[in-house]
Design goal:
binds adenosine-5'-triphosphate; single chain; ABC transporter ATP-binding protein; binds magnesium ion; Rossmann fold; 7-stranded mixed sheet; 327 residues
């Protein structure tokens, strides 16, 4: 049997390749190895006026490829800090963070630049921050592709133009290509911003409160554009939001509390034999890798639990009860 690739048919793997695959399959799997995003005990400490702020305090999060996830949490809980780390704008103080296989702690300045241009896209809350005011929508979308470099042949320019047109079309703003940001509504500007963020076909799209400055109806249109990017362009999307509409429509929404992922809500939509759709929703608390869980504050308050709880193992669950002062 030949181990050379045959022309036309699929390449036949060499013995070395097969051996490599077998070894890789037998090796212990790294935490979140196949995930688009894998944060493992990420710590971020800011020092301002000699005071240390622990914005992230050992945050664990994995996001599967192709998922659309909302990040929610009180002001100051660390959402933007996490997003800035994932965007390659900040580096963690400790822990590990990988996005699409890139190690965010080990990147050189040059790799970081490439990472920000090609692996992740970013949409900010402030519509004005996302776009160049003196360029048209189409020119704004073309800019990241130009900055990426490559050959400047007429064929490359044609391909770039095609990509820009396709993106604007996919986000239903094709007819706005020649307008400048000042000639667009807030919602239209955000949709152009999504096209800009997707210009270099990144695998992960991050957005920090992208609908924060918009009314409900406009926000719904922008959220629809994120869905399109997720479903049709295949990007993994993470949206930080206070908007209950956004958080209520994604399959998974993760809550951050005090710099850690504290709980998450998973939604499942099922279609029965009559074609009726039902959506079920369940809240989970996170179990970290050392076995710690953070219980919902409302649950603890309801039973007056604090400081110490009695834990009992049953066949299929663990029961937590208020500490019995009789013991
Ligand atoms: N550059 C910085 N220097 C010092 N402290 C910072 C810096 N950035 C964030 N922090 C602090 O880190 C904590 C987390 O801030 P972060 O901006 O991540 O919160 P957030 O969840 O995005 O809040 P919001 O919903 O208000 O946007 C806060 O206590 C904040 O004051
Ligand atoms: Mg923020």
């Amino acid at each position: 049997m030949s181990t050379e690739p045959t022309s036309g048919g699929p390449a036949v793997p060499s013995l070395d390749e097969l051996r490599g695959r077998a070894l890789a399959a037998a090796a212990p799997r790294r935490y979140g190895a196949d995930a688009a995003i894998a944060c493992d005990r990420v710590v971020k400490i800011f020092t301002a006026d000699k005071v240390e702020v622990q914005a992230l305090q050992g945050l664990d999060l994995t996001v599967d490829r192709g998922d659309l996830v909302a990040l929610v949490g009180a002001s100051g809980s660390g959402k933007s800090t996490l997003l800035n780390i994932l965007a390659g704008l900040e580096t963690p103080t400790a822990g590990s963070a990988r996005v699409d296989g890139c190690d965010l702690l080990a990147m050189s300045a040059k790799e970081r630049l490439r990472y920000r241009r090609e692996v992740v896209g970013f949409v900010w809350q402030q519509t004005a921050r996302n776009l160049m005011p003196f360029l048209t929508a189409a020119q704004n979308v073309a800019l990241p592709v130009q900055l990426r470099g490559g050959r400047s042949t007429p064929a490359a320019a044609r391909r770039r133009g095609q990509r820009v047109a396709e993106l604007l079309e996919a986000l239903e703003i094709g007819d706005l290509a020649h307008r400048r940001p000042a000639e667009l509504s807030g919602g239209q500007q955000q949709r152009v911003a999504i096209a800009v963020a997707m210009a270099n076909d990144p695998s992960v799209l991050l957005a920090d409160e992208p609908t924060g400055e918009l009314d409900t109806e406009t926000a719904a249109g922008v959220f629809h554009a994120f869905r399109t990017v997720n479903r049709e362009l295949g990007a993994t999307v993470v949206i930080v939001t206070h908007d209950p509409m956004v958080a209520g429509e994604v399959r998974r929404s993760v809550a951050i509390r005090d710099g850690r992922t504290a709980s998450e809500v998973l939604r499942r939509t099922e279609v029965d034999e009559h074609g009726t759709e039902t959506t079920s929703e369940r809240e989970y608390v996170m179990l970290d890798r050392t076995g710690r869980v953070q219980l919902p504050a409302a649950f603890l308050a309801a039973l007056g639990m604090e400081h110490r709880v009695a834990a009992d193992l049953a066949a299929d669950h663990i029961a937590l009860r208020p500490d019995d002062p009789g013991h």
